[in-house]
Amino acid sequence: MPQSNPIETVNAWVSAANSQDIERLVALSDPEIEVGGPRGSGRGSQLLRDWLGRAGLTLETLRTFARDNTVVLEQRGVWRSLETGEVTGERALASLFQVDGQRVMKFARFDTLEEALPAGELSLVDAI
Fold first, then answer.
1. Is the pLDDT of residue 8 over 90?
2. Which residues pair with 65 in a beta bridge?
3. Which of 28, 36, 98, 123 is the most exposed place for a label (fewest CB within 10 A)?
4. What is the pLDDT of residue 74?
5. Which residues does 112 contact at the CB level (< 8 Å), separation at least 6?
6. pLDDT at residue 124 above 80?
7. Where does residue 85 fall: left (phi above 0), alpha (psi -120 to 50 degrees), or beta otherwise?
8. In this structure, what are the phi and psi dihedrals at residue 14, rounded to the nearest 5 degrees?
């Protein structure tokens, strides 16, 4: 089912990532999606596939901020070993998304909400 607004698209994208549904994740992403995080950034569906295959990350959304086609999620990230499923790390983080139509064009992970909001040209007043 097509997503009708950027927040719905982002929520569907996060759900697909959390359930390791790579085909759904790719379908919700632009073929040249920009993926960024602490280790740098790159583009494309293959990079997205590689990231999901090794990250072992699930994201719980705590708060949503949005304006136009930009969405920032304050989240709790939990990393698990892909081999054992045991938790290997947990921390607060924030994710920035830029959406065009019904596809995510950019996903970037930040260590703090205070870094993510200005990167998306958003502020606390953009809370949903």
1. yes
2. 72, 127
3. 123
4. 98
5. 92, 93, 94
6. yes
7. left
8. -65, -40
